[in-house]
Hints:
The complex is a heterodimer. Chain A is an alpha+beta fold.
Amino acid sequence: MIDPIHRHHILDLGAEPLPAGWFRQRPTAPDTEERPAPGLWRVGPSGQFLRALVAGIDAAVEVVLVASFLLSDRSLADALLRAASRGVRVYVLTASEQRVARLIAEEDGFEARMSDEHKRLLAELAGKVLLRSADHFHAKFLVVDPARTPQAWLSTANFNRALTDSVELGVALDGQAARDLAAWFAWAFWQEAERELVERNRLRAVDPPPASPAAPSATQVCATTRSQTSLRDATIDLVTRARKEVWISSYGLDVDHAAVAALIAAARRGVVVTVLTRPRPNVAAAVAALAAAGAKILAHDKLHAKAIVCDAGALVMTANLERHGLDEGFEVGVRLPAFRAGGLLATLRQWAATFPWEYAATRTRREHLGELCPADARLRDGTHQVVAEEVLTLADVTADDALDLTTAPPPKFATPKAGPRHTRAVRYEWKVVPPRLPAKAAELKRPTERDEKVEDGSLRKVTTHMPYDPPAYQLGEARFVVLRTIGERERARKLAELLKAKVVVS
Amino acid sequence: MIRLQRNIEVATFEVEATVALSERRPEYLAVLRLAADLGRPLTARDVHRQLFGNLPETVGRIVLDRCSLLGLFDRTRPGDPATLSSAGALALERGGILLAEEGLWRIYHATDPLLGARPLHVQRLVDETNAQATREVLKKQRGRPQPGAPVPEAIRVGPGTSLVDGRPFEIRELSQRGGIGAQGSLRLHLEWSESDAIELALRGTLPGSPKEAPKVDRRLEVPAACKAWTHDRLWLALTAYATRTPLDELTTWHTHTRKRLLPRVITDLDEATRRTARCELTVPACRFPDLGTFEATRLADVDIVPRAEPDAQAWAEWLQWDGLSTYTTPTALQTAATAIAAKFPYHRPRLPTPQVLLQQAIKNPADPRARFLLAPADLGLWS
């Protein structure tokens, strides 16, 4: 019989643009190297930095100062309680409960569980530590025995599970830098705190301080407080003075902020700017502007570190490049000496080489295969996929003549609808099948004359109707020759020509 | 202010008696006023001319005779000029004329160390419309043996003043026996101000049916027994009694300081008293030989002083630590120490220095007040 023939058509969509966003370069993986340089930590699953903090608290003799936007790490809390029980005075600065509650709505990485853990731990510390809070407290650091043998650690991670889960940095400080950090703590405690935890689950508005603390030095440790912005100034100054390259890591990027504007300006004047961030809608506008200026933008699902390295210096800080941080928060940053700046630079380079996401504003389907996250979407809401080819099987096409399937016209090719799946090429597949005899067609017979002997023995002409071979049929004006076997092919063709019929199969 | 109170028992006695009650009678008072103004014996003509010029002259005589009959004027013979009597002068002063009535009276009376034994109020029991009939009944009864109780000692012939309305009265005649009526009580209030002004008052309701019982709220003349006391002497006596402090010790403090002070050992004082150096003292029921027995009372705003130097030292140190209610600095602590020392003018407590206090806080960081020292010291406010 006549077999259908298989046809296909490939629609090349490789030139189609993809949405601006984050293009996966490699799988997301936690940081592996946790001690890139002496006094510098990268947060990782083995928790080396967390252990350093706990050890610092356990070694405290007189005083422990803790500042963290969120505070819910169990091992740190236990260390603070141990310190308090042995007579060490423990002071804590943290974000207000109202501010933490607002984060649930504002931040895509923030969950109600984190707020609950924070509140639960604060209740546990009540009466054992002296805790003050304010809406704008965001700094994260630890200072131990500032008057005796000062030791300090500045952390970009909140003191919660971020200390093992996120991509973060930690820096150790001692001597004058640790004392400076303690001075900033004292300043915020007396001048900027809004509420004090007076008993379990009860915060009271703080009274004015009995005296003003001395204004801290912003030489090595700079800060943003309500009364000054040395951290903001230092950040912008570093970027502005960069001549060759700027490496910057920030969880938040505000397109309207002067620090981001400085980065854009640096990129436009030829400085190689590499920005590491987290793929979030909140940074979309800033990364678009930075990318347009020529900056390279890379991201990690859990990046939270905030740091700058450039030929003008290096800074690790707690502030994002945003108004609510550099301009209005209580944030701190430490200028790194050269030997640590090298370690930081190596870290940022390594991160850039291993981070899973790269931002691109204009990329075609031909230029990317795999996962992408549109800039205005959140990772947790699902990502898009770019695939090499998508096969679409179309309905069969019936040829006009069973003996001529090849000239059957192709079907219509509908372009796939836009969605989270982007294909470089669409392969449309269909079959061309021979036409079939219509059900109501009546057999067509040919008239044949023959001699028939009558009673008197004479012959007379008799016309009879005989089937065609192969058989023919008619429906209305249309005639059909039915091809029964492939061996009848030639006969069918000739009969069809004779009858002006189409060859069909039954 | 010292306030003492007690109940006094009030009894009633119903008896036939002649009782004069003060009444405002303008016609007689005008004659008395005339006599006082003229300053000489008064004639019927004086009365007629000055007071009743448009009436017959005999009116002057009738009025003057009536005044004399009421005892308001003295005269040797009828028709003589009449001289204002002491009763007349008193009536003029009080603005009322004592008019005697004979009949059945209820006399309220009491006996108390401060009141003595005396009638407190008189009340006529028979309607005046039947006065004549009553008089006749009483006349018939006179001279016969009478049933009932003898007249109580508190009721005797003589003047008095009603506690109910302040009207003067005078019991002029009394039957020898009568009936004992309802009994009740009144509250006696005795108050001494610090300036030794004394007020004695009776308040309450006299015995009787609730609807008719007369209400009493009357200040009384202060008896001599009260005047023998001063406010401070009474305060010292009550305080010594209430606190079992030797009266000599209290008196010595009072003599030397000219203030009413209660010396106490600090361990006897609760926190509120330590903070204010003042208390409200509860005085149990007490009895004074000359003033009588009083119910328990309270002495307000009793100033407390340390009994001895160690008490003052401990108290001052306690105040200093207790005063740590907010974060502080050495300068503020010094100022507070000076202020606390000034609260002990009769002692010389030596208060710990800020550094000593800080060491105390470091040794005991769990003390709720320790943080008010530790935080400023640890966080840059201590230099």
